[in-house]
Amino acid sequence: MPELPEVEALAAYLRERAVGHAVQRFEVASFSALKTYDPAPTALAGMPLTTAGRHGKFLDVGLGDDLHLIVHLARAGWLHYRDSFKSPAPLKPGSGPIAVRVRLDDGSGFDLTEAGTQKSLAVYLVRDPAEVPGVARLGPDALAVSRDEFAERIRGRNGQIKGVLVDQEVLAGIGNAYSDEILHAAKLSPFALTGKLTDEQIDTLYAAMREIETDAVERSVGQKAAELKGEKRAGMRVHARTGLPCPVCGDTVREVSFADKSLQYCATCQTGGKPLADRRLSKLVR
Question: pTM of the full predicted structure?
Answer without folding.
Answer: 0.93
